[in-house]
Backbone:
């Protein structure tokens, strides 16, 4: 098989874990009112750019190695994301039932969350509303792998992506909805970065990205449509940060930030229900106990559920002769 693009392997970059930690910290700071809105939306944009970058590298490298499988990719995403989501929704649904919500009321909130269509629902009770971003990402994971082979065979692939990003921005400005086409610009920006070529050392990427991100956090609250233009102007900053983190950065590689990035998915899942149940959403100091509990539950979910399932899945997919070595 011919190379699909410039052959280089990303591997594990610890600073990218730290960048996840920074992204979820922005979301937590927004929902506790320690930062003004739309800092949470800007944190989600960092996640989107990072997701587009990583998923594209996974697809391209697997294709170059001749190991690409769409069913395998979908199964990996399912094992990585769905069990923790299902447990969160089940536990929270029990809590809603104890508070007197009917079965239909609970199902009306839980079903869109576990089927990844929350982003298509009208605004409502906030208990699962944060799963809109999971819906956007999961829909992207199903569609983007189908587009990559076609795109990689185009000489003007980068121009095509730039035009697609511009079209997505226009769709967001015109509609303001949380559907995939309106948020695709951030994901596609990460995809474009992944196709540019090997990561080149540029010490100034993370400092410049940090300044641009801070500027976006300061400017965004002054827009009339903060969740349309705020994340949009933060996207270039997120691209700079992902590019810099992929090259390595000592600040983003500090252990506490990397660990927060490691548990970021579970913390993101649990923090809104904790804040809603304790009536401390946007409560500043009153929200700290709920966030602390979300960190504890998120750590338990990561270490006791998500990572053991992923390890078991990886071992199961290996040839039998390789399994003892993999376990070691």
Residues:
């Amino acid at each position: 098989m011919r190379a699909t693009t410039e052959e280089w392997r990303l591997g594990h970059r610890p600073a990218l874990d730290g960048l996840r930690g920074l992204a979820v910290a922005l979301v937590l700071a927004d929902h506790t009112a320690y930062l003004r809105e739309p800092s949470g939306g800007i944190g989600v944009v960092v996640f989107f750019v990072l997701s587009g970058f990583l998923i594209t590298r996974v697809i391209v490298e697997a294709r170059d190695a001749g190991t690409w499988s769409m069913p395998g990719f979908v199964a990996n995403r399912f094992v990585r994301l769905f069990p923790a989501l299902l447990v969160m929704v089940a536990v929270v649904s029990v809590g809603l039932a104890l508070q007197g919500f009917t079965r239909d009321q609970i199902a009306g909130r839980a079903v869109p969350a576990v089927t990844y269509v929350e982003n298509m629902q009208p605004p409502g009770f906030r208990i699962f509303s944060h799963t809109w971003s999971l819906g956007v990402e999961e829909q992207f994971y199903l569609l983007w792998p189908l587009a990559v082979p076609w795109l990689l065979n185009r000489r003007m692939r980068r121009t095509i992506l730039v035009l697609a990003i511009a079209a997505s921005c226009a769709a967001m400005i015109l509609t303001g909805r949380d559907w995939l086409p309106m948020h695709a610009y951030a994901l596609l920006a990460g995809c474009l970065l992944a196709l540019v070529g090997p990561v080149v050392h540029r010490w100034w990427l993370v400092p410049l990205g940090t300044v641009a991100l801070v500027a976006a956090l300061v400017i965004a609250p002054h827009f009339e449509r903060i969740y349309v233009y705020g994340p949009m102007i933060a996207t270039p900053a997120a691209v700079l940060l992902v590019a810099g983190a992929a090259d390595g950065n000592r600040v983003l590689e500090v252990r506490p930030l990397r660990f927060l990035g490691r548990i970021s998915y579970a913390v993101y899942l649990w923090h809104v229900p904790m804040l809603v149940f304790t009536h401390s959403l946007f409560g500043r100091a009153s929200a700290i106990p709920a966030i602390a509990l979300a960190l504890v539950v998120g750590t338990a979910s990561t270490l006791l559920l998500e990572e053991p399932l992923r390890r078991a899945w990886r071992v199961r997919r290996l040839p039998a002769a390789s399994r003892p070595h993999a376990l070691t």
Remarks:
- Residues 161 and 192 are 7 Å apart (CA to CA).
- The chain has 13 helices and no strands.
- Residues 288-317 form the longest helix (30 residues).
